[in-house]
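user: Please supply your own:

assistant:
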Amino acid sequence: MMRFTRLGRRAAAVATAALVASALTAAPAAAHGRTKPLGTRSLAAVLTADKSGFDRNGRDYDILTAAVLAVLKAKPASPVGVLTDGRTALTAFLPDDRAFRTLVADLRHTRHLPGEKDAFTAVAGLGIDTVEAVLLYHVVPGATIDRRAALRADGARLATAAGASITVDVYGRPWRRIKLVDADRSDRDPRVIRFDINRGNRQIAHGIDRVLRPADLP
């Protein structure tokens, strides 16, 4: 857990520069073959549209939404704020609530999955810099990558806003699937289970079933 915290401080220091640079070089239409201009609805607008709060639905994004809001409340100038700017092209990978519950169970070295509120409290307890760094590790600035483009990107290394990269692994026949290889070598890599959230806009997202881990957890 301490390694997670140290990583948070390092990653937050480089994220702003990465996002500014990506905004200058973004070409969202080319990233997935479109000629029609993309819309500017932000991913933050998508996430906050769900008003249900913590519940029993493990496949929505209540914990993620609460984490984003907590970071922006504590650090209004955080690079995480790019999620509220629909004019800036990016691709994000969104861990669902069950993914965060699994992360907390792993940190506690137990198989028991906590409830959503308990899981969020545990995540917030890692410290706001760590939460910020983990969120930024899920953001790939500068391009709008839809499902079609992602399936053609086997082996691609995607530079995240946290300053580290993740690798796309396309696998399976005849139905191709995608998993994302992160820095943690001791646990299963996240799989994409939902594609093209906010499709047609510069900011697009794909749902994943694990939290991307920017450090190799014990």
Q: What stands out?
A: Residues 2-208 form a domain with the FAS1 domain fold (CATH 2.30.180.10). Residues 12-30 have pLDDT under 50 and may be disordered.
